[in-house]
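Read as amino acids, tokens; as here:

___
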Amino acid sequence: MDDAALEKELEKLQREARRGAGAASTPEAPEAPAPREPAELPEGFSRQQLVLCFVAAIVVTVLLPQVSWGRYVLLPLTFLGTWAHEMGHGLTSVLCGGEFEKLVIYQNLGGTAFTRSPSWARPLVSAGGLLGPAIAGGFMVWLGARERVAPKLLAAFALALWLSLALFVRNLVGVVGVSGLALLLSALARWGPTLVRVFTAQLIGIQLCLASLGTFDYMFTKQFERGGKLINSDTQDIAEAVPLFLPYWFYGAGIAALSLLILALAFYVGWVRPWRRARPSSSPSGSA
């Protein structure tokens, strides 16, 4: 080997020795495991505080109707349930190719959606008023469990109220009630404390899911009287339109069960599943 080749080989060995010495003096720290992302988990408040919002909404829903003054406290939510019921009728009619002419809410908190729809869509339009509030309520419970989403959800609900006011509501009681609720939800979405927003979203969602159950006298009634006239209930309209010869109470029971199922699924997806996914995995430590 000539002197030039030998010199190059020595330089190469020296460089490798210097690199090895540097690595030995400053050992590379092991990478810390990436933290497990709490997917969909609400942030900023403890789990107990946020769950308390849902529990408080359940307690208000169950206990207030049992006291003499409780029903008056829940009047805005009862009004909201009527609005959602009639909007369910009207929007289902539009989705089936029909028309939604106007919405009227009466002083006794009953309501009527004036619609025109194809004959084949009659049972769907009737069912839309009973299941529409439960579907809307399920989304409120699910998405309203996230503190960053709750104000946006309340704002979207307020926007839906404003739009219905402009397009469909056509009597004084309806205008006053819908505009008042829209103002309240708009203010909460903009300035309300975080926990109040979450609580309100959960309370509205639960009330809407249980709106049909709260009117058992209507769900399981064949006809009712309004203005001196006998009018079919929604469940009776379904029974007459569906050629299965099943009684109206059968459809009432089915819709009640679906409403409870929607609430249970919304609670699972909105509250239970995110925290189960966020729970750190407890893997046993291995031995050599």
Remarks:
- Residues 23-30, 33-43, 281-288 have pLDDT under 50 and may be disordered.
- The longest strand covers residues 99-105.
- Residues 103 and 113 are 5 Å apart (CA to CA).
